[in-house]
Amino acid sequence: MQGTKLTEPKVFIDANILVSASILYVGKELGLKNGLKHTFYDRCKTLINIFKKRIDDKIGIYTKLVDVTANRVMRDALLSTIKETSRNESTVDEQKMLTVFSVIYSECIRRSEENKDALVRETVNEDKINKLRDKAWEFFNVTLKNEIEKHNPKAKIEHAKNIKGSSLIMRAVRFTKIQDAKTFSFPHYGTLKLKFIDSGIGSEDLQLFLQALYFNELYAKQNISFYFCSLDHHFVEIEKDGLVNDFVPAQIKEIFKMQCSKPEKIIPLVK
After folding, report:
1. Counting beta carbons within 10 angstroms of the beta carbon of residue 13, is it exposed (0 to 12), middle (13 to 18) or buried (19 or more)?
2. Angstrom distances, CA of residue 257 to CA of 169, 183, 216, 231
3. What DSSP character marks residue 260?
4. What is the reported pLDDT for 3?
5. Which of 148, 175, 219, 235 lies in disulfide reach of 260, CB 3.0 to 4.6 Å?
6. Cα(73)–Cα(15) distance, rounded to whole angstroms?
7. Angle at 114 between CA 113 and CA 115, to 5 degrees
């Protein structure tokens, strides 16, 4: 019936999802109980496994850009995983892991190819993508920058510092107000400032976002639910130390009518 949502949604995955779901090595020679595993392996692999289970529904999609990017960053992501594992596991010898790096790397590439078997590689219309470019560029480089700067806690911190009184109670009040302004008024302001004000979005990330917008518009016309899945804080919420800031994905949803989420948020929607 026209106007009815189809049951099979579409999920466009970022390269970081593919990479995270591919870094796993369980060779016993490393002496690791659970093997060498990317921090986000479990949540990303769970999503890929759902795509695999529902392969006939063709839910998960990727593009040449995602493929090329994943292959390019796999090596560095694996090296970072090795370093992180060696820091957290006192019995692990980082140098020993590096001596078998080529073996581990080959295994991760094999897993990446296996994961892509659960996905559909789609093409994009570059002419239509270029028509979306100006709006997307302005969103990241003007709109978001200005909106995030409005949440700069500096004014609230200065106001808290000016609370008068020298008693222990007033000093405690002043300290608490300053900490609240730094932490709770707009959580993770520093991270967002670094990503959007100090450095800005890179050309590759912008191109990926444009592809997501293209698919979002394409599937909206077919009345199909669409999600862009990523771990990049240019697109999804920041969750750390019990504090969440979903300002960026909320702005994307408001302006572009597109939902950007991490794997754990999308899994319940597609399983």
Report:
1. buried
2. 48, 29, 8, 19
3. E
4. 47
5. 235
6. 9
7. 90
> Which residues, including other chains, have CB under 8 Å from residue 180's CB and lie 6 or more apart?
160
- Copy the structure tokens of residue 120: 């559909």
pLDDT at 1: 39
Could you tell me which residues are beta bridge partners of residue 36? 25
**Residues written for the chain:** 271
Q: How far apart are CA 53 and CA 205, in angstroms?
A: 29
- For residue 211, what are its two tokens? 């592809």
**Paired tokens of 208:** 């990926």
Domain map (residue ranges) of the chain: 10-121, 126-151+186-270
pLDDT confidence of residue 189: 85
Q: Please give the model's pTM, rounded to 2 decimal places.
A: 0.85
